[in-house]
Automatic annotation (TrEMBL):
Keyword Manganese: no
SMART domains for the chain: TPR (SM00028)
Protein name in UniProt: Anaphase-promoting complex subunit 7
Classification via Pfam families: TPR_16, TPR_8
Species of provenance: Opisthocomus hoazin
The TPR repeat ranges on this chain: 305-338, 441-474
Basic and acidic residues composition-biased segments: 479-489
Residues covered by region (Disordered): 479-531
Amino acid sequence: ELFSPSQKYQLLVYHADSLFHDKEYRNAVSKYTMALQQKKALSKTSKVRPSTGNAASTPQSQCLPSEIEVKYKMAECYTMLKQDKDAIAILDGIPSRQRTPKINMMLANLYKKAGQERSSVTSYKEVLRQCPLALDAILGLLSLSVKGAEVASMTINIIQSIPNLDWLSVWIKAYAFVHTGDNTRAINTICSLEKKSLLRDNVDLLGSLADLYFRAGDNKNSILKFEQAQMLDPYLIKGMDVYGYLLAREGRLEDVENLGCRLFNISDQHAEPWVVSGCHSFYSKRYSRALYLGAKAIQLNSNSVQALLLKGAALRNMGRVQEAIIHFREAIRLAPCRLDCYEGLIECYLASNSIREAMVMANNVYKTLGANAQTLTLLATVCLEDPVTQEKAKTLLDKALTQRPDYIKAVVKKAELLSREQKYEDGIALLRNALANQSDCVLHRILGDFLVAVNEYQEAMDQYSIALSLDPNDQKSLEGMQKMEKEESPTDATQEEDVDDMEGSGEEGDLEGSDSEAAQWADQEQWFGMQ
């Protein structure tokens, strides 16, 4: 009661700020609301008595926290509480002329998340009008299908007025290609930027380049670029979820585990460390734990595409296909140009024998993303499931391999088709050609299977060995090798079976342990269940 009205307002804001930093967001909103009411009362008092102490009160009133800043802080609280509608409502209440660039930026992001694209575009453009070098606003507009030329026109004046800024127009062009799904041209444009002395060894560009190689199905170059970016910035978190996923797919689980530990040491408040650990669990066949870690990542960042894909894949492998479909659809909504999102959904349809839905989706992807090796292979994968469309699958795979003879998924599917037709010699030639310039565990293993079919046992054994050296956890290569060893020496085989029987109890014990752990994680996962 000893304080003046203006001091009360000031203290309420300070109190709310303190609560905000202590992450007591609901309490902070309550105090910010009280502060705004106090400010309203203060404004009415000053209108009634405009002459009283006018000269003395001016410096004090200038020091008072801005009402607009208080509303911005309230909106931040609402976003932390995942009450986006309330955040939009509080920011919408600020007159357009009084909105600062950060308010417009927050509004643009909230509108985008809510699916209000037109309002989002307007807000992003307002940010660029005030701050022509706001790169996040440029990316926001490009992600909402605003043409690169239109976005570039909004920055042309600043580019011409500031020296050494000519790279920006090329940068805009590159990310325009990224958001239209033209990966090849995006890669070429970013590579041309990277050669310029100003942007050489730029971590952000290297990360984008790695992501583009990944989208284009060039995993080898993607890993190389991620490693390069990581060497330049040891504290890099952005994109490391994709990097971890690629390492896990290659069977480098020890590297994935080390990466996860390193990322947790940097920050456990980002989705990426949880996704990397989830990938390690998923490829170790611990699906309940992968599910929990994926859910935790989504809780930290609901826009994490890789987290949604991880959780969706874990749900699918646990037989919860309908729940998995929800996650893959959300991933597609967030990243409509990423093929792996569609692949996950189509795999769910095929797992539930919904071949018609899978075919519709594969055709839509083919039309939307264009006829490239990846979309052709995806469509062929669905066609292989139906005996009526086998010939169409063959034609599509031939087209894919004409475009990219080294595309592993296309080679694998073509080999599958040749195996069905028992054309083993053709399959061996195809696989040898694919392995001429690259080494891949799956290709070596399939080549081993084909060589067994034509009685080339020694070379088949070599291929299985190479596959296991690339991925020691590849069960199919191990099974192929063990089957051959038993066939080669029947007497040894019977002895090995006895030994296996003796060791069997130990293996069952391990499996029981993993089941009990899975149940434990499944209980925890329910708390994180996605609505």
